[in-house]
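We close this part of the discussion by returning to an individual protein. The encoding preserves chain order, so positions in sequence and tokens coincide. The sequence in question and its structure tokens are set out directly beneath this paragraph:

===
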Amino acid sequence: MLFTARSIDAATAAEPLITAAEVAAHGPQALRMAKTLLRQGRDMNFDQMLEMSAAMQALAHLTDDHLEGVTAVLEKRPADFTGR
């Protein structure tokens, strides 16, 4: 659910290839950052986690994929993420 940005029911969760394809369609850098936050966040307190989240968000906003995502939403089309 974290990587698809939507809630899913048990039937959908039982369809791993569909869910995997949906996750793969998102920006690879954003997914990497989210996974890093999950892994490293286990060993942080709340304030440290917020600080790291803010830093990663600032970095994400500087990527070509961020611009592509915003542009795609405004143009009402699927995003074409490149991982840059």
